[in-house]
Amino acid sequence: MKGFQGPEIPPTLGNLPQWEAFRKAVSEAPCSGETLRILRAATLSLDLSAHPYSAEVRAAGEDLLQARAFTHARDALLAGEPVNQTEDRAAWHTMLRAPRPIPEVAREQQRVREFVAQADRDGRWRTIIHIGIGGSDWGVRLAVDACAGCGHRRELKFVANLDGHALQVALAGVDPHSALVVVTSKSFTTTETLTNLKRVMNWLSEAGVADPCRQVVAITARPESARKLGIAADHIFRFWDWVGGRYSIWSAVGLPVALTVGHEVVDGIRAGAADMDRHFAQAAPADNAPAQLALAGLGNRSVRGLGSLSIAAYDARLQYLAPYLQQLDMESLGKSVDMQGRPVDVPTGPSVWGMPGTDGQHTFFQWLHQGSEGAAVDFIVCRHADHQWPEEHAMLVANCLAQRQTLLRGTSLEADRAALLEQGMPAEKAEWLASHRVHQGGRPSTLIVLPKLTPHALGALLALYEHKVFVQALIWGINPFDQWGVEAGKKMANGILAELRSGAAASDHDPSTRHWISVFGQTP
């Protein structure tokens, strides 16, 4: 399929002369941090100084973007063209936060706004039970947690996992008569979501709620499926096939965010993302924050061979940022075949993981500093805190900057030995212990500085990563908008479930799977 990349079938990345020039430039460039390199976009500051960089890297990066038709591809994405070629549809999530969206989007946004305003006027619902998984879950968790300081109007409980323990915990202590159930599923066929919805509907019915369906709101791209379950049309909110689940927080999926922390928070998040969209659309490649973040990540993964990216957010309110970005990045870039169906000939998509600093420092930073492989790190911190303890914020910032510089510069054997000798340690022991203390250094990182953790800054941050993923996919030549691997696993699970119920395993399973189907099939 030729698609939007041009009339000719493009070569694989490894066969592009511009890729070879980029690979060579990154391989030879120092990762010393001596060149200050800060980009600004939508109130965020993006410090890329701690990546391999040189004049050759800059020129080769721009040539590589041009070879992959960056400008054309970006414009196609933002215009709603069918860039998701394997599913033959657009990936137009940017329209959901546009200042002047198309009429159907504007109408749905107004419906959500009116629903929330009416609930607030009437003082309805003390608890929101949100049922959804993956892209229908992480964005809501992140937005509510990050923006809780904007005001808390209702308690929000999450039910994502199919495990009944998750539902049991969510329903504990909740009054069924004052609870609103919000079920979010793009396809309205997601096994985990529909199973949990059925359980909650039974819970409402058993509690004596006369019409459980009036306490259920559905957010889906398949309104007819929600209506078949008895959910009223005025309680069904739509998003569209051209909105991927991991890009859906900008749609009606944000309704529980509005019910919990206010619609002004949703508006602020959208406005921040729209500002980043504007920057992405207008900035030259050398100054384009998402494009340059993508190139830095490309160098770390496909040139230097770093297999993972750690998200170190130095703000406790961003505890859900790592799993949110984990899904965005790994579901999008976990591909090994290009748009023409050929194997990609360089490493793609890193594993993404992390937790807030300073918790991470006491968990996995030892591996980051002295492990045999290491990882690239995205440090994220706010310039100003929202609490009343400036000294604690200064300590937080100091830790962030210190960890980043130590990863970059490391420590030398000579300096560690001298420090130990100065403490009076015998020379032989000092030599031995210094070898354990030395840090290699030269480990790349990005520092992203938010002015404060406002809804606007959060929206800009998420859009920055969305566009970074798009640019990396473009260069690798893969489609970041499908997820066929996930779909294959779902289909197999349905078959195994039927076998568990019957107690008979199909003969085409591997021996281990057949064994465990027989064991679990006998479980009372």
Word description of this protein:
- Strand 1 (38-41) and strand 2 (44-47) form a beta hairpin.
- With 524 residues, the protein is of the alpha/beta class.
- It has a six-stranded mixed sheet with strand order 1-2-11-10-8-9, sandwiched between helices. Strands 4-3-5-6-7 form a five-stranded parallel sheet, with helices on both faces.
- The relative contact order is 0.14.
- It folds into three domains: 3-84 and 271-476, Rossmann fold; 93-268, Glucose-6-phosphate isomerase like protein, domain 1 (Rossmann fold, 3-Layer(aba) Sandwich), CATH 3.40.50.10490; 484-521.
- Helices cover 47% and strands 11% of the residues.
- It is globular and about 80 Å long.
- Separation, N- and C-terminal Cα atoms: 51 Å
- What fraction, in percent, of the residue positions are helical? 40-55%
Derived from helix and strand composition plus strand pairing, the structural class reads: alpha/beta
Uncertain segments of ≥5 residues (pLDDT<50)?
1-6
Itemize the secondary structure elements and their pairings.
Elements: H1 17-28, E1 38-41, E2 44-47, H2 55-67, H3 70-78, H4 103-122, E3 127-131, H5 138-146, E4 155-159, H6 164-171, E5 179-184, H7 191-206, E6 216-220, H8 223-228, E7 236-238, H9 255-261, H10 263-282, H11 289-303, E8 308-314, H12 321-333, E9 351-354, H13 365-370, E10 376-382, H14 390-409, H15 413-422, H16 427-437, E11 445-450, H17 455-476, H18 484-502, H19 511-521
Helix pairs in contact: 1-2, 5-9, 9-10, 10-17, 11-17, 12-17, 15-16, 18-19
